[in-house]
Amino acid sequence: MKSRNKKGMLAAVLAAGLVLAPLPGLTGGSAAAAAKPAAAAIGKTAYQVYVDGRKLALSPPPVTLSGTTLVPMRAIFKALQADVTWEPSTKTIIGIKDGMSVTLQLGSKKAVKNGKAVLLAVPAQQLNGTTMVPLRFVSETLGAEVAVDAASHAIRITSEEALEQQEIDKLAEEQRRQQQDDDKEKLSVRQIVDENDAKVVMITTDTAQGSGVIIGSDRILTNFHVVQDAASATVTLEDGTTADVKGIVGYDKDSDLAVLQTKKPLGVDPVKIGESELVGKGDHVVAIGSPLGIQNTVSEGIVSNIQSDGGAQTFQISVPIDHGSSGGGLFNDDGELIGLTSSGVDDTHADLNFAVSAESIQLLLQDIASNPPSSVAFLPSDKPSTLAGATNDEIKAFMDKEYSTIETSEGTAKLSDFQVTRDDQGWVVITAVIDPAFYMVYGHKASDDLRYWAIDAGVELHKLLPDNVIQLNVYYDQTFSFQPRGFGPGEVTANGDGTWRIRYPVIQVQGKEKFNVQVRD
Prior knowledge:
Number of strands: 32
CATH architecture of the largest domain: Beta Barrel
C-alpha cells in the first residue's frame, strides 16, 4: 500500500508540471560550480543533529550556508522515516511520507511543499560529491519540529511520530489527573469486598488449584497456567455452591490468561473491569483469591511497580498471595478489577508478587468477541496417554521433554543425563543428574519445591505406567581432584586417574499406587 501511494504522489507531482526539465546551467559540472561561491559562507562550527534524542551519524557533517543548515539528503529522509526518490535527469529530489511531500531541485531556490510552491533561502546542492538539503525545510515539511540549541551547537528534531506520542502521553496524564480529581471518595476495603467477594471463585482442576473471577453469566477469567494441563475443572462460589467447567473459551499463553465457560449459569453479576492506564505506582489495591485452598481470602497492599514484558503489562504488588491465588482478582479503590494475581517470589520479605493487568484482559476479551470459538473444550494434552509398551529410549525421551527442569522459588534447576532401565523384578528405574552448582547453593531452600516435583513426577509416571513399580533417582554427581571425606558408603569412588567422584541421590521416588519420596537437602 505504501508503494502505491508513493507512485501516485510521484505521478501527481509530474502531472502538475512541477518537475519538467533540468534547470539552465545545472547540467554537467555546473552544479559544482554553483556551490563554490557559497563555500565562503560555510559556518566554521558544525552542529550535531539529533532526531528524537538519537544523534545522527552524518557524513559529511552538516554545513551552514547563509544561515541555513544543510545535511546529507538520504540520512535526514531516512531518520524521519520518509521515502526519497532521486531523479537524475532533472536533478530532482522527491520525498514522501504519509500524504506529505517535498520536491527540491539542485541549485534552485524554488521548492514544492505539499503541492504548493515555496521559496528557499538556500537551495539543495552538491557539496564534495554529496547531495545536501535544507534541514529545517525538509523536517518541518514532513511534520517534525526543529529546535536549535546554539549554546551546545545542537539541532534537535522531534519527528511527527514522537510529537503524536507526546500528545497521547499528555492526554493520558490529563485523564489520569482528572480521574484522580473525580475520585475524591474511595471505597473502603470492606466496601470493595462486599461488592466483589461473590464474584471471585475457587477453581479445582484434575491437576491444580487456583482462583478466578466471574466476567459473564457462565464465564470465568483465570490464569492460563491454572488450566493449561487440565482435563476437567470445577468452580466453587463464595456461598459454597459448585459448577462444572465445560472448557476453555479462549486464552493468551503469553499474558497467562484464560476464559472458562461453566456448564450452567452462575447467577452472579460479573466484575467491573477498570482501566489499567489509570493505575500508578503507589496505588492502593485489594486482592481476593484462594491461597493454599483457603477460599476467598482478602489481602491488601500497593502497586510497587509497573512493568512491560513483550507487550504484556504486569503490576508488581506488595499484596500477600500464595500458591492457589493465581487467577484471583486485584481491585482498585473503586471496586474495579484492574488485574489478576498470577505469581510471586517465595522466601523473601520484600512481598515480590505480580498481577496481569486489565490491559491484557481487555485485549483477550476483544479477541474472543471478534473470533468466537467454534467449540468449547479443554486443551488437548501434548503428553502421551500411556507409556505402556514403550521402550526405554521412548521413556527417556519423555523424561527429557517433560521433566528436565524443576521450577523452584530460587530459580530453575536443570536435570541431565536421563537413563532408563528395567530390573529383573520388573521395576522401571529412571535416573538423572541435577545441576551441581544449583544444588550446592539452593538445595536446602528449594527442598520443598524438589519434593513437589518428585510427587508430581511419580503420580504422572504411574498414570502412564500403571502396571510397573517406578523408581526415580536424581543424583548429585561431581568429580574432585582430592578424596572427599564424610560421605556414606559407596558415595565416593576413585576414577583411577587421580580424581574422585561423589555421587549420591538427592531425590528418591519409589512406588506404584502409593509413593515414598525422600529429598536430601
